[in-house]
Amino acid sequence: MNQSRRILFVCIHNSGRSQMAEAFLNDLGGPEFVAESAGVTPRPINPEVVQVMQELGYDLSGAESDSIFDFFREGRLYEQVIYVCEREAEEDCPVFPGVRRILHWPFPDPATLPGSEAERLEALRGIRDQIRSRVEEWLQTDRS
Asked: What's the pTM?
C-alpha cells in the first residue's frame, strides 16, 4: 500500500488561506494526500474564514493555527510546500529537507480585506472559491 503524500500549505498567520487550502485538499484529495498548514507568526483562525467555509460544509471552528518553525523542529517531512501568501513568507520560512517541490499560489490576505462585514465576506467567498479551484486544478495536473 502506498503512503499518503504529505503537503504543507504556508501563509503568514495560518489563520485563513492556508487553513482553507488544507481543508480543501484533505477533502478533495482523498486518502492519497495528507495536508497540513502552518504560519510564520500564527494567529487565531479568522472568524469570517470559519463562516465562509461553513457555507460549503467545512467546519474550521475547532482548527488551530500552527507554527511552521514548530513543524520544522519536529522534523516533519513534506513532499511539497505550497505558499499561499506574499513572497516575503518564503524568505522567513525554514527549508524543509526532502521537499520535492515548492509552489507559490498568491492569494489576498483575508485579514486585510476592506469594507463592511458584508463586503469582506463577499470578497472572502471569492478568495475561498479561488483557493478551491486552485486545489482542484493542482489535483488534476498532479495526478496526471
From this structure: 0.92
